[in-house]
């Protein structure tokens, strides 16, 4: 069997992985310990990200005709690829966070939703919260005024209604002299 025939299934597997991907990030993994590599793979797997170590020539062939062909110039030296089909910023976010503790891990470049980013761009993108975090912040912002109103109303009800509330007594005390003054001027 020729070497090309042996490599073709690998190229097809990479092409299938990047086919519907929203983002692909390349990293240089040299120098990672086995424990660090295992922890990185587990963290990426838990986030639904495909992580593979592949030959650069096979990645180049798999990227042909896709947005990810823009990564060809960065395919030098040992490369690993992180592919996400759901959360576009997840690979950059997880890899940048992991690279802070594992100094041997170096980001090379990435294509996120059709745009190529260098290391600095990936670092900036990694600061964007995940979709779930953004939705929870939005929900919290929407619920905050309603929650505060419910607390105030609950406190008023616990104190026996507006008549027993100190603020209501103060307002009533301020309005009483004003009403008396209005009555005396009207007479």
UniProtKB/TrEMBL annotation:
<comment type="subunit">
    <text>Part of the ribosomal stalk of the 50S ribosomal subunit. The N-terminus interacts with L11 and the large rRNA to form the base of the stalk. The C-terminus forms an elongated spine to which L12 dimers bind in a sequential fashion forming a multimeric L10(L12)X complex.</text>
</comment>
<comment type="function">
    <text>Forms part of the ribosomal stalk, playing a central role in the interaction of the ribosome with GTP-bound translation factors.</text>
</comment>
<dbReference type="GO" id="GO:0006412">
    <property type="term" value="P:translation"/>
</dbReference>
<dbReference type="InterPro" id="IPR043141">
    <property type="entry name" value="Ribosomal_uL10-like_sf"/>
</dbReference>
<comment type="similarity">
    <text>Belongs to the universal ribosomal protein uL10 family.</text>
</comment>
<dbReference type="Pfam" id="PF00466">
    <property type="entry name" value="Ribosomal_L10"/>
</dbReference>
<dbReference type="InterPro" id="IPR001790">
    <property type="entry name" value="Ribosomal_uL10"/>
</dbReference>
<protein>
    <recommendedName>
        <fullName>Large ribosomal subunit protein uL10</fullName>
    </recommendedName>
</protein>
<keyword id="KW-0689">Ribosomal protein</keyword>
<dbReference type="GO" id="GO:0070180">
    <property type="term" value="F:large ribosomal subunit rRNA binding"/>
</dbReference>
<dbReference type="GO" id="GO:0003735">
    <property type="term" value="F:structural constituent of ribosome"/>
</dbReference>
<feature type="region of interest" description="Disordered">
    <location>
        <begin position="162"/>
        <end position="187"/>
    </location>
</feature>
<feature type="compositionally biased region" description="Acidic residues">
    <location>
        <begin position="172"/>
        <end position="187"/>
    </location>
</feature>
<keyword id="KW-0699">rRNA-binding</keyword>
<keyword id="KW-0694">RNA-binding</keyword>
<dbReference type="InterPro" id="IPR022973">
    <property type="entry name" value="Ribosomal_uL10_bac"/>
</dbReference>
<keyword id="KW-0687">Ribonucleoprotein</keyword>
<dbReference type="GO" id="GO:0015934">
    <property type="term" value="C:large ribosomal subunit"/>
</dbReference>
<dbReference type="InterPro" id="IPR047865">
    <property type="entry name" value="Ribosomal_uL10_bac_type"/>
</dbReference>
<dbReference type="InterPro" id="IPR002363">
    <property type="entry name" value="Ribosomal_uL10_CS_bac"/>
</dbReference>
